[in-house]
UniProtKB/TrEMBL annotation:
<dbReference type="GO" id="GO:0009294">
    <property type="term" value="P:DNA-mediated transformation"/>
</dbReference>
<dbReference type="InterPro" id="IPR041614">
    <property type="entry name" value="DprA_WH"/>
</dbReference>
<dbReference type="InterPro" id="IPR036388">
    <property type="entry name" value="WH-like_DNA-bd_sf"/>
</dbReference>
<dbReference type="InterPro" id="IPR057666">
    <property type="entry name" value="DrpA_SLOG"/>
</dbReference>
<feature type="domain" description="DprA winged helix">
    <location>
        <begin position="316"/>
        <end position="374"/>
    </location>
</feature>
<protein>
    <submittedName>
        <fullName>DNA-processing protein DprA</fullName>
    </submittedName>
</protein>
<comment type="similarity">
    <text>Belongs to the DprA/Smf family.</text>
</comment>
<dbReference type="InterPro" id="IPR003488">
    <property type="entry name" value="DprA"/>
</dbReference>
<dbReference type="Pfam" id="PF17782">
    <property type="entry name" value="WHD_DprA"/>
</dbReference>
<feature type="domain" description="Smf/DprA SLOG">
    <location>
        <begin position="97"/>
        <end position="308"/>
    </location>
</feature>
<dbReference type="Pfam" id="PF02481">
    <property type="entry name" value="DNA_processg_A"/>
</dbReference>
Length: 379
């Protein structure tokens, strides 16, 4: 998962460059969670955290990272080496550190402007790149109707090949995770607290079940004390960013669930909402989403699966070689709308002949679909 440890001095007495992983931890800390500058910074440094470290005192870094992060970047105690204890602690706890350039980093998050530079994961991170991720969110204080519908819908979606993504919180989040497990499907819990904590604590057994067949992920490292209330709101953007579509089961008009909806709209995700009794406050938010046209009415799992062209997918084969950096770059440039070979070549900065070979490999791997006229679309 990580590069081998660098020695601090070379044979000639000169200091070796810091480890790439430590540079990523430094950069994520320097930028802070949910930074609006993340996409711009990564574009500037080409996804190279070491380059960002080396150029931290330049005007170009300041422009890309923003003034606040630029000030933090040059603080004397803020260095990559300062994060070695954190890397060791993650290893001791069995927490996998997934920086932006890691093979298991979710491709879906590379397409949002405020992506996390580092994720922390327990369980199998391969599910972060599964083709059928669907977010399911709702009230923390659901009524029996909400629980019943969430359980049935989540179970049917899981049986149909979807991977349910939710927030591992009390209420409907927990119901949706359990429904996925009952449907014999994997599920992904997205944390709003440090990865070594479970909130609420009563969900620790549910978390273990999730980790056995899916994974738990978040952007707060073990021992972090800075997340606070914002951690849950920032977590919501990850649920929306990971998922191809968001299903809102039951929510008030003013609630944390609606912040997830706003992120899904910002990222261009499809939104479905379950209709409810117009006299119930818990259904006011979902009913309003449908009335205003912001969400499509969710009446069955079959309709949602058909809308997303989802079919039951096999468990990711961990014996297959991970995607190369070039393959990941091409997938990040592709999208849900067809692009010509020339358009992809320009977006990726590659020669058409070299790109065609990469596209063929991705097509054989089931990641890209070739259309007539040398056009390609992301599966």
């Amino acid at each position: 998962m990580t590069a081998g440890l660098w020695t601090q001095q070379s044979l000639f007495g000169q200091q070796e460059p810091p480890e790439a992983l430590l540079c990523w931890l430094w950069l994520a800390h320097t930028l802070g969670p949910a930074s609006a500058h993340a996409g711009r910074l990564l574009a500037w440094c080409g996804g190279d955290a070491r380059l960002a470290w080396n150029e931290r005192e330049t005007p170009a870094f300041r422009e890309a990272a923003g003034p606040a992060a630029a000030r933090r970047a040059v603080q004397p105690d803020n260095t990559p080496e300062a994060f070695r204890p954190l890397a060791r602690r993650c290893q001791a706890l069995g927490v996998q550190v997934i920086p932006f350039d890691h093979p298991d980093y979710p491709l879906a998050l590379t397409r949002i402007p405020d992506m996390p530079l580092v994720l922390y994961c327990t369980g199998d991170p391969a599910w972060l790149n599964a083709p059928g991720l669907i977010g399911m969110v709702g009230s923390r204080r659901p009524d029996p109707y909400g629980c019943q519908m969430a359980a049935g819908l989540g179970r049917d979606l899981a049986r149909g090949g979807a991977v349910i993504v939710s927030g591992l919180a009390e209420g409907l989040d927990s119901v949706c995770h359990r429904a996925a497990l009952e449907g014999a499907g994997p599920t992904i819990g997205v944390q709003g607290v440090p990865i070594d904590r479970t909130y609420p604590a009563s969900n620790r057994w549910l978390r273990e079940e999730i980790e056995a067949g899916g994974c738990v992920v978040g952007e707060y490292p073990p021992g972090d004390n800075l997340a606070g209330r914002n951690g849950f709101l920032q977590r919501n953007r990850l649920i929306a960013g990971l998922a191809r579509a968001l299903v809102v089961v039951q929510a008030r008009e003013r609630s944390g669930t609606m912040s997830t909806v706003a992120h899904a709209e910002r990222y261009g995700r499809k939104i479905f909402a379950l209709p409810g009794d117009i006299g119930r406050e818990n259904a006011a938010g979902t009913n309003r989403l449908i009335q205003s046209g912001r969400a499509r009415m969710a009446l069955s799992a079959e309709e949602i699966l058909e809308e997303l062209s989802l079919r039951a997918a096999p468990v990711p084969d961990r014996q297959e070689p991970p995607l190369t950096e070039t393959q990941r770059k091409v997938l990040a440039c592709a999208g849900s709308e067809p692009k010509s070979l020339e358009e992809l070549a320009a977006a990726c900065g590659m020669q058409a002949a070299a790109l065609a070979a990469v596209l063929m490999g991705l097509e054989l791997a089931g990641r890209i679909k070739a259309l007539p006229g040398q056009r390609y679309i992301l599966l």
